[in-house]
Design goal:
Largest sheet: 3 strands, antiparallel
Number of strands: 5
Strand content: 5-15%
Number of helices: 14
Order of helices and strands: HHEEHHHHHHHHHEHHEEH
Radius of gyration: 36 Å
Helix content: 40-55%
Structural class: mainly alpha
Strand order of the largest sheet: 3-4-5
Length: 437
């Protein structure tokens, strides 16, 4: 179920709650308190969703990107809208009983729906952490946020319609009054909140609401550790190389593409001589497709992507680009990573993880013109993209500095042998001369 589905369910529940409250008075004294508790829960959920969309409590400086332009424009009334939601929520928290009034049950259903919307958003853009998906990264960049905020403002207006009937239905006459059953007073920020919500709706430019298509994040929320220093980047690359060498059959197109882009970025940044080979490998890997990474495969790709973000931070990121000496420390480890990919490439091809694009000429039926058709098929070891990529990665691996062959410490001196006494010379008797006759 997507965010758009739950938004429709919440809107329908709030509309039906207005009719149920107008049609039937409270059946029990607890209905009033439960209705106010559900109302407070909805406002809290709307404020939480707003903060998730804006990466924290919004301020007047928060801005959204303009379509087709590089500059960002401020979102008018966003901070006031968030503050009014928090003020309207209050501190009433309670669960509706099973046999509650139909209007209370509808409000509770709307509160649960708003909570699910917040949970879906938190899966993609967890507070205080980096985005856990591509959609989350787009939201952090501002894509679809104004339209999503306008949808939240629409739900706020639907809840304000409920607020107009709640005081008389619960038995409260003004903000300072307290009902006979002990129900706390009901704050009525309807005028200020309605004005802020309408300002959000009017200020949103017509655009496709990408947030409506968000669904629950399927893979576990286990973000890769941040790489903010050269040491952390080296640890991430070394761990990825170790895993790829142990599981060569799990290499996917995502590993090849991220690793080659990472090597090319580091080589350009540090001004190293292997730039042409990294550029050729990155171009060859970009032409491949394959099965998506999942589980540990995705974790390895995420760690490499985190190192790439360290080398090439986004424009709106608080990170600063590392200096050349730090990148120069990372470059040799990337050459070793290229060797791990070159060794595992045949196993990945044999397993069918990679796809190549094959173009053929076909003539449609009853036509004299041939057309080019593209077909993705499983790669083989003899395909030109695979052989070229393997050759580039192998050459990069050979550019590594040879491993030292000397001992880590000075060699131990040999023990000199003790001088031996010369062997005594043997004496032989003189040869007898024959006697002359």
């Amino acid at each position: 179920m997507t965010v758009g589905y739950w938004r429709t369910e919440v809107a329908a529940a709030l509309t039906a709650a207005v009719s149920a409250i107008r049609a039937q008075p409270p059946a029990a004294p607890s209905d009033g308190y439960s209705a106010l508790a559900a109302r407070s829960k909805i406002y809290n959920g709307l404020a939480r969703a707003t903060a998730l969309l804006t990466n924290g409590p919004p301020s007047e400086k928060w801005s959204v990107p303009q379509e087709g332009k590089t500059r960002r424009r401020p979102q008018p009334g966003l901070a006031d809208f968030y503050d009014q939601l928090c003020a309207a929520a209050g501190t009433i928290r309670d669960a509706a009983p099973a046999d509650a009034h139909p209007g209370v049950q509808l409000l509770q259903r709307a509160a649960d729906g708003v909570g699910v919307i917040g949970d879906i958003l938190a899966g993609h853009v967890p507070p205080g952490q980096r985005p856990c998906s591509r959609e989350g990264a787009a939201i952090r960049a501002g894509a679809g946020v104004p339209a999503a905020l306008a949808d939240l403002a629409d739900l706020t207006l639907a809840l304000i319609a409920v607020d107009q009937h709640l005081p008389a239905w619960v038995g409260l006459t003004n903000e300072s009054a307290t009902a006979a059953d002990g129900t706390p007073p009901l704050r009525d920020p309807t005028a200020a909140l309605e004005a802020a919500a309408r300002q959000m709706i009017n200020g949103a430019e017509p655009a496709v609401n990408l947030v409506n298509d968000l669904d629950v994040l399927r893979h576990p929320i286990d973000p890769a550790p941040a790489a903010d220093t050269a040491d952390q980047a080296i640890i991430a690359v070394t761990a990825a190389e170790f895993w790829l060498r142990r599981h060569p059959e799990d290499i996917t197109a995502a590993h090849l593409q991220i690793a080659t882009r990472l090597g090319l970025t580091a080589a350009v940044h540090a001004g190293r001589a292997e730039q042409p080979w990294w550029r050729a490998a990155a171009s060859g890997a970009a032409a491949l497709r394959g099965i998506p990474a999942c589980g540990p495969d995705q974790a390895v790709a995420d760690e490499l992507a985190e190192v790439l973000r360290w080398l090439r931070p986004a424009d709106d990121s608080a990170r600063s680009q590392p200096d050349s000496p730090q990148v120069a420390r990372l470059a040799p480890h990337l050459l070793s990573l290229a060797g791990a990919l070159a060794n595992g490439l045949p196993a990945a091809v044999t397993r069918g993880n990679l796809l190549v694009n094959e173009k053929t000429l076909q003539r449609p039926h009853q036509s004299l013109i041939y057309v080019i058709t593209q077909l993705w098929r499983p790669a083989t070891r003899t395909d030109t993209p695979i052989t070229d990529l393997a050759a580039d990665l192998t050459h990069l691996n050979r550019l590594r500095s040879p491993a030292p062959t000397a001992f880590p410490g000075p060699p131990r001196p040999r023990r000199e042998a003790a001088p031996r006494d010369p062997a005594p010379s043997k004496t032989y008797p003189a040869r007898r001369q024959p006697r002359s006759r």
